[in-house]
Structure formats: C-alpha cells, structure tokens
Amino acid sequence: MQKQNWIYKKINDVCEKASSNIVLNKIENNVGDYALFGASGFVKGVDFYHRDEPYIGIVKDGSGVGRVDVYPAKSSLVGTMQYILPKNDCSLKFLCYALQSLKLTDFVTGAAIPHIYFRDYGECVIPVPPLATQSRIVSELDLLQSIIDKQKAQLKELDTLAQAIFYDMFGDPVENEKGWEVKKMKDLAMVKIGPFGSLLHTSDYITGGTPLVNPIHMKNGKICSENSFTISDEKKKEMQPYLLKKGDVIFARRGEIGRCAIVSEMEDGYVCGTGSLFVRFTEPISEVFVLFLTKSKAIIKELVSKAKGATMLNINCKIVEDLQIPIPPLSLQQSFAQKVESIERQKELINQSIREAQTLFDSRMEYYFGE
What we know:
Adenine-n6-DNA-methyltransferase TaqI, Chain A, domain 2, 2 domains, four-stranded antiparallel sheet, 9 helices
C-alpha cells in the first residue's frame, strides 16, 4: 500500500553489508571484551571483524538460516552470519523489521547446507518513510513484540513450575530419596515400538488421512499432528498393532530422548510412527505422572546412558521395559495431575492471548511493509 511521503527503495540502496568471515580457534567462555553471537561465550582482542555500534545480524547458512536480529555494540558474529547496517535514511530497528517482513527463508537455497546471500534479497524493495514515521512504527511494533515475548516467558515459567511441583511431590525419580516402591515399566505397561522396515514407506503418506505420530509431532507433552503426514484407511488396517489409544504415552525412540506426549481423546486411533514407541498401561497409574517422570533430567540421563547408536541415539523396547520407576500412591499422582491441569488451563489462556497479539502484530507488519 503506497503511503503519502513514503518512498520505496531496494535493500541494496538503504544498507551496507559485510560478512564476519572469522575463524576462531578458541572461544573464551565469559572472558573477553566482545560477546560472540552464533557461538557461545566471549572473545579477546580486536583481531576479528566487529562493530562498535549496534547492527543487524542475519544467519546466512546452516541452522536458523534467514533469522534476522539486532545485536549490541562491541559484539561479533561467527562466519555463518552477516552484518547489515542501514544508511542515513533508514533507522536500524526499522530496517530490521523491514528485513523480517521479507521472510528471508523464501530465498534459501541448497539442500545439504541451506544458505542465503545478500544478492538473493538485495534487489527487494521496501518502504522508506520519513525517519519520524519510522520511529513511530518501531515503537508500535516493539510494544506488540514485547507483549508477545513477556507472554512466552510466562509460559516457560509455568512449565518450570509444573516440573518443580513434580520434584517437590515425588523427589528425584532415580535417587528416589522419598523411598517410593520401585517397579520396572514392563510390570506396569505394554511397550510397543513403531512400525519399521517394509511395514511403512514414505510412499504410503497421503494428505488428509489418519495422522502418524513421530518425535516432531510431540510438543510440550501434546501431540501436534500434520495433515500431510497421514496414511489411508486401507493402510491403517495394516497398522492395527500400532494404533494409539487415549491414555497411552508416546516416546521419541531416536534423536531427542525424553521427548514424549500423552495421547488424548482427540488422538485416539492415530498411528505410532517409525521414530516412536508407546506404552499402554496395564496397572493403575497416572499418565501425567509418567509424562513428567519421562521428561525429568534424571530419567533422560538414564535412558541416554543405555541408548544405542553413534550418530543418532536410539532406545528400544527392552530399554524402556527395564526402566525402573518409583510408584507413589495413586492418589498423590492424581493430585499432581490436577495441579498440572490447572497450570495447563492458565497456559491456554496465555496462548490465546499470544495468538491475538501475534495476529495484530502480523497485520501491522503487513500494513506497513506489504505491497
């Protein structure tokens, strides 16, 4: 939308860029004059590319490619990142929002190592209103972003609270300092690994069928399925032994050990994916208790110590079956589950508020930077 007194310029014309191109032999954690971004810690000396004023950094290849952020003065970036500085007619923060509006991930190329270069987006055109207008726009967007950031921080605090309540009520599940009875998982549940080998192929995936549940679909203890990662009703009939039921707990069996989720009524009948395994309880136990038990650092460490594989850790049925877990009284487990349910209700209210704030933020970004 063309606006009065606004001009439109190419990215090339409103900023200058430079890549860090530094290779560091040693990173001094928390020691040195310059904070280092793209790797942990600080570095000493000035024999590397750095800025004495704030700047925009863009991840130009590898993990997080296309991410745009403002970085503080007297800091440096590793070689996977690129410096961007505005010229006189464009403020730093306004340019950052303009670059974010371009969705730089759309310009990413390369399969093995995804990358993006200045030439890929330098010809893009952005609005350049008067500096006073830029300042007002930045103030509005900063306020909305700060609201979203604070609400996301609240979610993390609530997650931390739930885990803290778990430890307060039950103690360390490996040390078992409260002296609970201990049983192996196989004495409490059936453990079933997902289909593999010739049972399920990528060619079996369709859109709009019954969802598969792999580790990527387990987020914050819940299943977040993908409509494009599903199988047909005919294929589902072959997968009967791998169908999930309400109350099951599904685990990542490879990669991020400790990632898990509870199967709710909505996911009853979904299919355990090849990268997962699930437990179906045969004895009275709270699935919420087992979820937090599995997410605890102590149990994750226990599972990792027994996992197989050099390049990617894997756990199997036997490892999970032999996992020894404390069994507090069921009434105490249920009390914990009620506390978690209360926390989840608070989180849903915050999530709703985040969605509303994000919708408003996106609409203002579109208004200022859209065509």
